[in-house]
Amino acid sequence: MGTWTNEELNRIESTAEVAMAPLDDDGSQREPVTIWVVRDGDDVFVRSYRGLDGAWFRAAKVSHEGHLQADGVDKDVTLTEEADPDLNERLDAAYRSKYSRYGAEYVEAIVAEPARATTLKVMPR
Questions:
Q1: DSSP label of 32
Q2: Residue 84: per-residue pLDDT
Q3: Which of 10, 34, 66, 101 could be 22's S-S partner, Cβ–Cβ 3.0 to 4.6 Å?
Q4: Is residue 1 part of a domain?
Q5: ∠ CA(64), CA(69), CA(74), 5° rounding?
Q6: What would the pLDDT profile of 35-81 be if each residue is shown by its tens digit?
Q7: Residue 85 has pLDDT above 90, yes or no
Q8: Which residues does 107 contact at the CB level (< 8 Å), separation at least 6?
Q9: In degrees, to the nearest 5, what angle opens at C-alpha 74 toward C-alphas 68 and 75?
Q10: How much is the pTM?
Q11: Which domain holds residue 49?
């Protein structure tokens, strides 16, 4: 697996939404969905607003691969599950800070269970 460049991290951090297209179990790329993204140090994370019911998340959980597009960043990625409670606290704070302008209803949904249980680390391939 690769690492993000500083420019890629800055672009991803500064954009509100990314297009995520996980691979299906047959290896084909799904249609991209628009999702929120946060950065923690040199790492990038996403969650499913719909929790475990999110179709893109279910596909990502099976394939662990996809494609991300964000503000000029266009990368094939690996998606791994993250369940560290300390990390989730930092990501909750990052989501609240970055997306507060969208209203409490949306932000509180992305920092609550079951969305929290869908935290995926996104790494370039």
A1: P
A2: 84
A3: 66
A4: no
A5: 90
A6: 999 999 999 999 999 999 999 999 999 999 999 999 999 999 999 99
A7: no
A8: 95, 96, 99, 100
A9: 65
A10: 0.95
A11: 6-124
pLDDT score at 96: 97
Q: Is residue 13 pLDDT above 80, yes or no?
A: yes
Q: What residues contact residue 1 under an 8 Å CB cut-off, 6+ apart?
A: 78, 123, 124, 125
| Cis bond upstream, residue 124 (ω within 30) | no
Burial annotation 5-42 (CB, 10 A radius, 16+ → b, else e): eeebbebbbebeebebbbbeeeeeebebbebbbbbeee
In single-letter form, the type of residue at position 11 comes to: R
Q: What is d(CA 116, CA 119) in angstroms, rounded to the nearest whole number?
A: 6
Q: How far is CA 91 from CA 69, 96, 105, 112, in A?
A: 20, 8, 17, 11
Asked whether residue 19 is domain-assigned, the answer is yes
Domain with residue 97: its CATH number is 2.30.110.10
Res. 24: pLDDT tops 80? yes
Joined together, the tokens standing for residue 78 give 């690996």
Domain count of the chain?
1
Task: Find out whether 20 and 56 touch, Cβ atoms under 8 Å.
Answer: yes
